[in-house]
């Protein structure tokens, strides 16, 4: 089993920044990628970004890298989502997920991000 703990969410004014963190523990050697999804009120959960834990390859929704770059801490299973120039439409619950080489994806409990106009 893998446990995911997210942190860094909160209330911020439009144009502000937040940095989300997600730390994995447990059977982390089974993981090959970690990433972020978000779910706005009344909408489905959607993909934001993913990073592979060995090569550090990044994947984003859409053709451009971003708008929120994903990174990882070298040497352990912690990933970050740097959110700059936030907009009210970025308001959502942000979920960390971890993908094992075999088996089902793990999910964190989510962290609320609220951007006021």
Low-confidence stretches: none
Summed up, the helix count is 0
Share of residues in strands: over 45%
The largest sheet is: 7 strands, mixed
Helix content: under 10%
Radius of gyration over alpha carbons? 14 Å
Oligomeric assembly: single chain
* Estimated structural class: mainly beta
Distance between the termini: 40 Å
Number of strands: 11
The ordered H/E elements are EEEEEEEEEEE
Shape label: globular
Give the mean pLDDT: 94
Describe the model.
It is a single chain. With 117 residues, the protein is mainly β. It is built from no helices and 11 strands. The strands form 2 sheets. Strands 2, 4, 5, 6, 9, 10 and 11 form a 7-stranded mixed β-sheet that branches. The radius of gyration is 14 Å and the shape is globular.
Topology (elements, then pairings):
Blueprint lengths: L1 E6 L2 E4 L4 E9 L4 E9 L6 E7 L5 E3 L9 E3 L5 E6 L8 E9 L5 E2 L3 E6 L1
Parallel strand pairs: 2-11
Antiparallel strand pairs: 1-3, 3-8, 4-5, 4-9, 5-6, 7-8, 9-10, 9-11
